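The aim of this short unit is practical: by the end, you should be able to scan a pair of folded records and say something sensible about each. We start with the first protein, listed as its amino acid sequence and then its structure tokens.
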Amino acid sequence: MSEDVQLENPQTPPSTDDPPVQMADNVEHLRAEIQEYKDKYLRCLAEQQNAARRAANAQLEAVRYANANFMKALLPALDDFERLLGTEATADVQSLRAGIRLIYSNLMKALGDFNVTVVEAVGRPFDPTIHEAMMKEPSADVPEGTVLRELQKGYRLHERTLRPARVIISGGPTRSN
């Protein structure tokens, strides 16, 4: 029980011409419609390629200037260094120390503004993800595996370790035979 269903094309004008003329008109109409869809497709393809190119350029630009804000934050410390270097050779030691403290403070502020923090080390249990043990020393006062001294500060960016703190850890009390 099969019925033939004939769909009418709403864009095809009804024709009362004889069949060969009607077919020729339909073929021309279909060719025009194909050309229209082809043009639309090519425009969409060009728009997609342009959008992809713009996105790639934006990504390259973002990567290229990703550190710009951080670099701007360091400029005050650089300015302080230049002022300190420009002071007279007769400047007293206290003035030089104050200038160095100011520079250190500005650098630490710039790092803090970008979520760089100092790794806490001394008195903490040794953690190989944030500490690098340089040596062990016996200690009767500090439990084994605890950081005794820090040789070099470590830093983290958010939760990622940028540089582990280099430390000396306690080996616990010395054992006598």
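Turning to the second protein, read its sequence before its tokens, just as you did above.
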Amino acid sequence: TSIGRTGMDVPPVFAHDVTGVTDSVPGVIDKSAVAFPIDSLSSLAPGDYAVQAVLDTNIDLKSVNAPGNFYSAVTKLTLDPARSGIVRLALTSTVAAEQLPPDTDVVKYIKIPSKLLSDFHKRPIFLRAGVVLPRDFAKEPARRFPLRVRIGGYGARFTGVGRLMSANSEFRKVWDAPDASQFIVLHLDGDGPLGDPYQVNSDNHGPYGDAITQELIPYVEKTYHGIGQPYARVLDGGSTGGWVSLALQVFYPDYFNGTWSYCPDGVDFRAFQLVNIYEDANAYVNRRGFERPAARELSGDVRMTMKHEVGLENVMGAGDSWTLSGGQWGAWNATYGPRGADGKPVALWDPKTGAIDKSAVEHWKKYDLRLTLEQNWAALAPKLKGKIHIWVGDADNYFLNNAVHMLDAFLSKATPPYDGSIAYGPGMGHCWVGLTERQIQDQKAAAIAAGAPRR
């Protein structure tokens, strides 16, 4: 549970790329290992520690607790780098094979093979999702329902629908209300070979957008009585899900009938958090020579810097690089960036120095949503009319409000008008939503009713 946490007070993590580990050939962690948050194993303060080893072997799911990963028992030791010695940790346990949670009357868990992604990765790849059935699904077997596609924050797993439908959740209260509109909810999965796949086509993650729209959604609509028409599909999500929901609407404008996007990840790469990828020379240091923050408290105090956060991802990624970390920055880079000759994502900036590689920037432009909209507005405007709705706190902890303001500056003056909405929460952080769950549900239902064919 400690791996992946940031902060100067987190338990130290050390990593090394290993091959051919067997009972007689150990993997070795020594002073050459990558370390976080300290510089190296040699810098470890003497004292009593609880120590555990993990061997990451799952190439299809990047989370530390992915099925098939090996781990040792937690061992309590007194460690002092100034004294020589060897600590042996045996990888005696394996994370259990994946097993879907049991279905209930209203919550279903699915895992289907994806031909599109399997062809891309050249091995079997599956699409996982959680489904919440409409309140009257069982009572009205002939009825067809609209689809609400939901995307969570970074790395949110499809199994989250179980918590979504817990007895006292606000979502469940709205869902059970007899006068509430009814939807099939499809919750996408936030894990893949390179971390969260961001659900769009990319050179590194593969054709996720096509897999979602051509394989997963048709399967769900057929299996669970969906209407199966563009007017009856809506999107929503926050943070990562905010970007994904907006991107899917923009990239598939005829397939969906509106997005409700909250605190979206950077929608304009002139403000990729605080980095202007087109003009800045360095991701870690701003033009005044100060380290650039990656997160802030509502008070404005710095929670962590980019160099610190990416430093953690360097430990988590093979080759001492954040590009293969499966973390937030690594997944962004895999989504937006080009694929190198070695088959790995090209780093937008150097893992150690933060120097930006301008040769990679051009490829990122197609995922700059403001730029995409601005360059293609004549064609996209009639398809997106009234479909874009965004909320963001104006003190967003990850500075995501800056990019939303840039997108707003374009959309507010776009011709023809976009007829959507962007709302800001003064003094509000990540992830502020200016509506109740019921209001969100009602807005979606109104958009579907307005788009339905007239008889």
